[in-house]
Amino acid sequence: MRTPLLPPIIREDWFRKAVALIFAVLLWFYVKGQLRDVETFHDVPVVLSYDRTAICAEKDTATVNVSVRGSRQQLQKLRGSDLRVTAEIKEAEIQHGKSAYDLRVTPECVETPTGITVVGIDPSLQQIAVDRMETKSGVPIRVRYGGRLPEGYQISRCTVIPSQVDVRAPAALLQDVQELTTDLVPLDETLTVGFEVEKRISSASPRVIPGIATVHVQVEIAKQATHSYQDLPVAVLNNPLLQWDVVEPMPLVKVAVRGMPENLKNVDPASIRPFIDLSSYTVPGRYRCRVEVWTSGAAGVAVESVSPSVVDVTIVEQGSDFMFSQLQPENRPILPPSAMPPASVPLSSPPVSVPLDSSVKPALPEGSLMLENVLPSTRTIIIPAPPAKSGAVQ
Predict the structure, then answer these.
(1) What is the CATH number of the domain that holds 50?
(2) Residue 1: pLDDT above 70?
(3) pTM
(4) Domain-terminating residue out of 93, 123, 153
(5) Average pLDDT rounded to a whole number, residues 320-333
(6) Pairing mode, strands 36-49 and 61-71
(7) DSSP 8-state class, residue 299
(8) Angstrom distance (rounded) from CA 28 to CA 22
(9) Strands of 225-232's sheet, edge to edge?
(10) Would you tell me how many other CB atoms lie within 10 Å of the CB of residue 323?
């Protein structure tokens, strides 16, 4: 007789014992499933869902802290990147112009792995700056250049196709959009003829979106011409609070301008106005001034040279017949205004008045000289007023 392989404790009433074992295993899994932990993941990114053609958000993501519940084993494997949080910005709730939108993040906004439950979100409400997107038509395109052309050449014409575009941008930003620019069009000293190029449209803000990405730029290059204007009078630019008269007659100057031939033909000689600037002088005396040129109304031309480029002038208070000026000794050069001695330099002799039309030289205090086309040898000098006042540049 063969011996049974299973002992009697298992062999006897085995069916009921097997059922009990199955229920015990199920109960163990159930109890283990009820023993769940809670863990919080910080700074989980929130992806904002909205129509980007109609809405502009100041930022595309926010962050929240998400608390989840799950088994200890599941939580040990879980990472913050496994949680996907998406919140919707509804266009109907946005006001016109830049405003703060109340963004609500609920547990339903979070996607989690199986067996993980969201139990809390902090903060569940936060504000996001948003604005409606609007369109502005007919915004001009300006070409930007980099580098320089050879000496004597300039851009005679630049054509942009199309010259204007439609632009979409947030309403608060769109009102400040006056123009768009192209990427740099390179210039160099080998270019003497025109060229064409495709260039991207750029803007100061990535939220300003042009209707097209590129424009066609046609650049025409031409050689400049020069023209000289002879015997032009020099005007005086005065300080309105402290007017000066110039003693000596101002010399006539020659001004050479350059530009495109068609521009030079349209230049009115009256628009080429040489002048000296006396507005920064505070002490009467003798100065060396640079002759500047005002080309108001002379569009498309530039000053190439002025001859003479500097003049020596003696200035006195406007309307005075005679005055003593505190000037530099003869061993000092004629100085610009910033190098003039202070007004507190003492005179070496008292003032003396002399009639302008006197044919006899008066007796002057010792150490004084009357101005006769020579530099003073002392700090005191008699300076006659000019026969006629110089006009001020308007």
Answers:
(1) 2.170.120
(2) no
(3) 0.48
(4) 123
(5) 39
(6) antiparallel
(7) T
(8) 10
(9) 225-232, 253-259, 301-307
(10) 15
Q: Hey, which residues does 110 pair with through a beta bridge?
A: 85
Q: What is the C-alpha to C-alpha distance for residues 189 and 268, in angstroms, rounded to an integer?
A: 31
Are the C-beta atoms of residues 380 and 347 closer than 8 Å to each other? yes
Which ranges in 42-155 belong to alpha helices (H)?
72-77
CA–chain centroid gap for 299, Å, is: 26
Residue 20 inside a domain? The answer is no
Q: Which residue has the tokens 């349209």?
A: 266
162 cis-preceded (ω within 30 degrees of 0): yes
- The number of beta carbons lying within 10 Å of the beta carbon of residue 183 is 16
Percent pLDDT > 90 in the chain is 17
Beta-bridge partners for 139? 165
Average pLDDT over residues 50-79: 82
Q: Where does 24-124 show beta strands of DSSP type E? A: 36-49, 55-57, 61-71, 84-88, 99-104, 110-111, 117-122
R_g (Cα) of the chain, nearest Å = 44
Q: Which two tokens stand for residue 187?
A: 């210039």
Q: How far apart are CA 317 and CA 323, in angstroms?
A: 8
User: DSSP 3-state assignment of 99?
Assistant: strand
Residue 19's contacts (CB-CB under 8 Å, 6 or more residues apart) are none
Q: How many domains does one find in the chain?
A: 3
